[in-house]
């Protein structure tokens, strides 16, 4: 039987006066027309979301508009623009679609390619460029904030995709005198030396209007306060000391420990501690929790029902059990883990075969839904490609990656396009008859990947890919027509000049010489 805890989340936020002060003065500055960006760092579970949520509630009470976007953890780099589109959907819900489109003004077309569910005018072209998307989003924020100051929260930027990072870098400078405060949170313990967010943070640190706020662990005194708030009475001093030491002052672990500190023998590591609660669930409920750990951060009810393939009553029962045991929480019309740390612990605990099987289950279900036209196409295709890859289903992952790349490219989400092309490249040798399946040869895949990389700003990578394409094309001799070779050489010349390297003009001349004269 599951023991249901009374208060699992501290009713009151303890400490954080300094950090709240920093956020308040940043908002005051933004409100007076000096836009400010705050990057808020701290380890997982330390209370970044809680701090931002409390601050946002206070700001809203004072008449500020708040929108929040969540980065999606899809393994590797996230889904293009995910936190931005999430925040803009919230804005659309607050303002209504018409007002949103009116506020977008000239950025309307770029905005509708970012949010395909918005109504599109007949005369609007479908594709767009990254620059237009950036301008449309900042223009929209500026316009909306003219009316009421705006706080844009971008959560968990360590999972954000490159397009989001670039947009943030752009917005910090482009917002002019808009009354906008951007708050980006990230896990400081997640940033390895070569993490791409590190570069952006270093770049932002040089901008005067960017402030960094660190969210530290709680002191023993603060842990005592949190425990008091949780239990409704002050706990004995030795319990405080024990829980403070065990949790290392991370409030999320304080909550877990407060709830379990009742004689249960606790595991050594904090990670395993997170599994204790899961292991107390019924077998069916645990199965469902494992299934959810393989899905996205948040899995919609319909998708979960389709993947789980159990009868609706049993599904509801097992879900309710996991929610009341505080492993899962209801999130809109879907489910999420109460905290990403729990999801990660469950995920890491899966057996390898189980891991692959569950991913394959998601992929197959998503593709069935795609065929029946449910859900936003691009996100679903990219997710299916990701799941097939994790399931080691090479052929299916290959096909889905190419489709996802093409769809991302049509949206100017070049980094996502590049990522999917790169995955297809990685899989090429493992897919029998890859060229027939793709509809083009390996040289062409290299060239398309190079082009996406170049558009995504990865010029060095683009050049390496073009060199590889050229080497292969030359080795193939007559099998590659001169005009294709010429295009590749021309592309390389373009990259050389973008990189400021010599030889671009000569290369271009050679490319032109290869093109057969008009008949
Ligand atoms: N200062 C605080 N006082 C009380 N509870 C807190 C505090 N900070 C965080 N918590 C609680 O700890 C848990 C983890 O916090 P969260 O904000 O989700 O962490 P993060 O976003 O940094 O991973 C949440 O349940 C939250 O309510
Ligand atoms: Mg958080």
Task: Using the CA coordinates, give the radius of gyration.
Answer: 25 Å
The appropriate CATH architecture of the domain at 17-214 is: 3-Layer(aba) Sandwich
Helicity, as a percent range: 55-70%
List low-confidence stretches. Answer: 1-6
**pLDDT averaged residue by residue:** 88
Query: In CATH's first tier, which class of the domain at 17-214 applies?
Result: Alpha Beta
Class based on secondary structure composition and strand pairing:
alpha/beta
Query: Could you tell me how far the N terminus lies from the C terminus, measured between alpha carbons in angstroms?
Result: 83 Å
Overall morphology:
globular
Distinct helical segment count: 25
Strand content: 5-15%
The small molecules bound here are: adenosine-5'-diphosphate, magnesium ion
Q: What's the CATH topology name of the domain at 17-214?
A: Rossmann fold
Largest sheet: 5 strands, parallel
Which oligomeric state applies?
single chain
State the fourth-level CATH superfamily of the domain at 17-214.
P-loop containing nucleotide triphosphate hydrolases
Organism: Jiangella aurantiaca
Protein name: Helix-turn-helix transcriptional regulator
Keywords: ATP-binding, Nucleotide-binding
InterPro entries: AAA_16 (IPR041664), P-loop_NTPase (IPR027417), TPR-like_helical_dom_sf (IPR011990)
